[in-house]
Amino acid sequence: MTPLEAKPHAFAGVFSLLAPHLAELDRFLHGQIAAFEPEIRAMADYCIDTSGKRIRPALVFLGGWRGPTVITPELVRLAAVVELVHLATLVHDDIMDEADVRRGRRTAAREYGPTAAVLLGDALFAHALHLATQFPTTEVCAAVSESTRRVCAGEIVQTLRRGSTDVTRADYQRIVDLKTAELFRVSCLLGARLAGSEPDYVAAAGDFGRHLGIAYQIYDDLVDFFGEETRIGKTLGTDFASGKLTLPLLALLERLPAGERAALTGEITGKCPPQAALRLGQMRELGVFTAVAGAVQTEVALATTALRPWPDHAPTPLLLGLADVLHAQIDGLRPRACA
Amino acid sequence: MTPLEAKPHAFAGVFSLLAPHLAELDRFLHGQIAAFEPEIRAMADYCIDTSGKRIRPALVFLGGWRGPTVITPELVRLAAVVELVHLATLVHDDIMDEADVRRGRRTAAREYGPTAAVLLGDALFAHALHLATQFPTTEVCAAVSESTRRVCAGEIVQTLRRGSTDVTRADYQRIVDLKTAELFRVSCLLGARLAGSEPDYVAAAGDFGRHLGIAYQIYDDLVDFFGEETRIGKTLGTDFASGKLTLPLLALLERLPAGERAALTGEITGKCPPQAALRLGQMRELGVFTAVAGAVQTEVALATTALRPWPDHAPTPLLLGLADVLHAQIDGLRPRACA
Questions:
Q1: A276: closest CA among A296, A255, A254, A248?
Q2: Is the pTM here over 0.90, yes or no?
Q3: Looking at chain B, which residue has its C-alpha nearest residue A129?
Q4: Most A CBs within 10 Å: which of B115, B131, B151, as the mutation test of the A interface?
Q5: Domains of chain A
Q6: ipTM for the whole predicted complex goes beyond 0.95
């Protein structure tokens, strides 16, 4: 279970509408196994896990929304492309993070070893981009391959900055924009494009996706400090423990007096053991939750603003519904964060 | 320096003709650095190393040969695509093999750490496929992305079989066909295709490339036992030491009496330390070199046969010249192998 699924009822509105689309996507994805070489089909099947939250496919279907009964093969294929790219990045992430478990079962790296997992992630990438060539023009494949490169660039920058306190808010924004917002953006944009929307709406849908992606990543970084493990379904506090300087930590650094700031710097750089409970308490006292939640809301508002000129377009109310979900999720964290 | 460069004079004929093409490719590849995000440009530049043998680009240029002064932008772009895919696989291979040095300098994994190197390989793949979308149709990108998946599948199979003696000749053929012959095949085929050759010749060029690729890989596996490090420029005996069951070892296993076979099996599976000198001596005594060199020549002959119906097509004599080089390279190993 992942953060956006933590309150399934909050999603009920948008995601129950999408149920037939996502079921069709699952059928399509499982049908892709046969495209892999026989020797690696079982491994590809293991990675093409359909238990995730499918937020990028949801953006594809919502961006190209034409009504609850309209499920076009083009949107299903595009949803599969972006989901496969995302799954490939997860396979590689889990190697690098030495993660044992994802979504309640062993990661591909633990199941098949890191070497096979590197190659398996590569094969998933390659197949995603192969699927992307099954459109009449090169447009989808060009956009998705460029996005993939940008996602990797974002993750590289983040990796190289691990354990460093020389990270500014601008650096953080840039990392988030590349590693998360990019694939949200392209999912929404290409969904609208394939559904035949006018160019201005396509661009607006891309802007919406980008800001929603930034909001989602900041929310996810906030959950790492203020979430409840039982509700969120993943180990929390890992960003701090691994020296990843996310917005909550940046905001705390800005607010601490010099002496304390130096101590926290030592914890981030790995010179001293991280004092998670102390830092969480300081975050509560110094209003870090409110400040970072405000940053999420700002991005949600920017996403919403992008669609304001098009209230009557079919996707608009549904995309705004998705933005509302994130808004509500933040409120769900508040009691614990401000306890 | 790599095996096919070991005797530069043998290459002089074909490769001196290609010098302007390869120089243009180098310019093009260095021009691609600007397409990467500013934060990863220096790293991409480090990986886009132009000191390699460029055999896949050579196959592109030769497959699409129209004379020494004809260098089309399409062939240069295609050559860059296949070389970038190859460089990406090398970046990932070097992580998995924990290699320190390639072509006389630190591998990307040693220079930037394995985590960044996984992502950097991904970014190179993504950019290769993005370049492949810069043709009028999806054909090039579809073929290259499919080939990339097959290369990965071959490497996965090889990885999972490491340290296993349950590998047949058919398994070995399959691994070689996927991990090496596939990209040779598609380089040659798409080169001919972009140059506007008739469909039958395009298919024949693909067959030529495939068999040359198989021949090349078997040759490379033979070099690992019978090459001279000073001439080849890389550490030899690594396949045996890492439990990789290549054709020379398979042929030796077939020839050894039962007791010795069991001992060698123990060395391959890692139960006993590999006795490299003993096994090399046995290979010499039991005619392994001659048998495996024969397998190379068989594949070279199959490559040559594929082009026989088209003696007057411009690429034919040059592609055959490349096949002759491999033939000569095998002869160059003979004195040491049969000493």
A1: A248
A2: yes
A3: B145
A4: B115
A5: 3-337 (1.10.600.10)
A6: no
